[in-house]
Specification:
542 residues; single chain; Alpha-D-Glucose-1,6-Bisphosphate, Chain A, domain 3; binds 1,6-di-O-phosphono-alpha-D-glucopyranose; six-stranded antiparallel beta sheet; alpha/beta; 18 helices; seven-stranded mixed beta sheet; TATA-Binding Protein; 32% helix
Length: 542
């Protein structure tokens, strides 16, 4: 029986960079989940009789929300839902399923790299029929709907068993419970030379993959250990846990410290990698060398032709604005276009759909291609493995060769987390107001050449996105970018992105913090970070 339940709106259901993210207790308020899911459904025209994919990263509250979403999908006209067993689907695997099964869209439950647990983070995101995060036109409609919603529709039914594969009926809607790994692993086998990678492992190549007790554990075990023959135990922390073992499933140098230390030690394996809560981010570390996500994108682009899925070459490369210019140099040499988009994977969707870009990447540890419409952690790891198998050099040799050939873009990101929203917004507003007077000025030792607030004009649909981050270019080629994070759930996070290009082959082992010291000082002085936030140092440096 379908019930129509009266409800009152919440005013804070505005999807951010990547869907709606809040603390679990926030989502547990009466009708909070139901309101948002109904707002999504109400914003989708033509959903009647369609297929919906539902899955999440397994974090605390995942199972409860999936049952609610299923009952509401059944009451809102969907004919079929496809759910990963146990409610599990990594974000890229969900994107793939939406595309492979020609679904109308998908609901992905995740707060990505944020911690999980009863008082930690949760998230709900809608992906459209191309498999990618809903464009702003849809997220705006969802937000508008959530502010006026008066009722939601739900089927009165008991919870479904989601732990056994197969199809069941839910009030006339078919629920198909699928193996979350199968289709995804098959896609990876089509893109990469699994024989060559198997050969690499057979020859004694060693690897450590940190699944961070998050969703990629089962994917990595199946693909790396079972199909590619990596030694048992290659996958660390491979058991997905609702609280990620109490850790932050963020594959950066702070939260994947154990892996980093191992890779810098004497008995380091040849290759180290990690992925985040929902499996879309990646961390790449060679023996004795961390590869920044910006460099990784450039290296993957320069070598992608070595993998069967990209043997025909790349149509173009897209990167988010704060990502370093390393990929630009590769695009230039390859003679293909380079697109600079705002932060947020959704901005790549049109370029991928239109066949203008093949590879995309962001400084925030996301890399992907047109195989799905999300960034894809394991995909990046497998492309690296394919390249390593083809080139038979170490990660360090490959990176150094790249820098010798293209020059090096020193890069670092400084994050100031959990600062009060008001001073963080004031800092940005003040920078914006001072943009016209910055060129020619010097706060410490460098001179500003030009400064702007990044605005994006989508070349495919003509849409505009404004106020996407303050860019300050210094004389001599260095750059500082300031923006506030769109994914945090408490207070504000100020991100400061710093880079400088060095054309020559010198300084291969130079520490970026040292190479960028003057840019860091200048950026801090221009924005008055210490005075405005009271912080003397960033919380996270990557
Ligand atoms: C999300 C988006 C990414 C984006 C990142 C930025 O990542 O999917 O495209 O780069 O947010 O985060 P912030 O706004 O905090 O800098 P994820 O992995 O959280 O979905």
């Amino acid at each position: 029986m379908i019930k129509t339940v009266p409800t009152t709106p919440y005013d804070d259901q505005k999807p951010g960079t990547s869907g709606l993210r809040k603390k679990v207790p926030h989502f547990q308020q009466p009708n909070y989940v139901e309101n948002f899911v109904q707002s999504i459904f109400d914003s989708l025209q033509g959903r009647d009789g369609q297929t919906l994919v539902i899955g999440g990263d397994g974090r605390y509250f995942n199972r409860e929300v999936i049952q609610i979403a299923l009952r509401m999908a059944a009451a809102n006209g969907f004919a079929r839902t496809i759910v990963g067993r146990g409610g599990i689907l990594s974000t890229p695997a969900a994107s793939n399923l939406i595309r492979a099964r020609a679904a109308f869209g998908g609901i992905i439950l995740s707060a990505s790299h944020n911690p999980g647990g009863p008082t930690e983070d949760f998230g709900i995101k809608y992906n459209a029929s191309n498999g990618g995060p809903a464009p702003e036109r849809i997220t705006e409609a969802i937000f508008a709907r959530s502010r006026e919603i008066a009722e939601y529709r739900i089927l009165a039914a008991a919870d479904l068993d989601l732990d056994a594969l197969g199809t069941r009926d839910l009030g006339g809607m078919t629920v198909e419970v699928v193996d979350p790994v199968e289709d995804y692993a098959a896609l990876m086998e089509r893109l990469f030379d699994f024989d060559a990678i198997r050969d690499l492992f057979r020859g004694g190549f060693t690897m450590a993959f940190d699944a961070m007790h998050a969703v990629t554990g089962p994917y990595a075990r199946e693909i790396l250990e079972n199909r590619l023959g990596a030694a048992a135990g290659t996958v660390m922390n491979g058991e997905p846990l609702p609280d990620f073992g109490g850790h932050h499933p963020d594959p950066n140098l702070v939260h994947a410290r154990e892996l980093y230390d191992r890779m810098m030690g004497d008995d380091a394996p040849d290759f180290g990698a990690a992925s985040d809560g929902d499996g879309d981010r990646n961390l790449i570390i060679g023996r004795g060398i961390f590869v920044t996500p910006s460099d990784s994108l450039a290296l993957l682009a320069a070598n992608a032709h070595l993998a069967p899925g990209y043997a025909g070459g790349l149509k173009g490369i897209a990167r988010s604005m704060p990502t370093s210019a390393a990929a630009d140099r590769v695009a230039e040499r390859l003679g293909i276009p380079l697109y600079e988009t705002p932060t947020g994977w959704k901005f790549f969707g049109n370029l991928l759909d239109a066949g203008r870009a093949t590879l995309c990447g962001e400084e925030s540890a996301g890399t992907g291609s047109d195989h799905v419409r999300e960034k894809d952690g394991l995909w990046a790891v497998l492309l690296w493995l394919n390249i390593l198998a083809a080139r038979r050099q170490s990660v360090k040799e490959i990176v150094h060769e790249h820098w010798r050939s293209f020059g090096r873009d020193y890069y670092t990101r400084h994050d100031y987390e959990g600062i009060d929203t008001a001073p963080a917004e004031a800092l940005m507003a003040d920078l914006r107001a001072r943009l016209p007077e910055l060129p020619g000025s010097t706060a410490a030792s460098m001179t500003v050449e030009r400064a702007d607030d990044f605005a994006y004009h989508d070349p495919v649909d003509g849409s505009e996105a404004r106020a996407q981050g303050i860019r300050i270019y210094f004389r001599g080629g260095a750059r500082a970018v300031f923006r506030l994070s769109g994914t945090g759930t408490s207070g504000a996070t100020l991100r400061v992105y710093l880079e400088r290009y060095a054309p020559g082959p010198d300084g291969l082992d130079r520490d970026p913090q040292e190479a960028l010291a003057d840019v860091i000082t200048e950026a801090n002085a221009i924005a008055g970070i210490r005075a405005r936030t009271g912080r003397t140092a960033p919380d996270v440096v990557t």
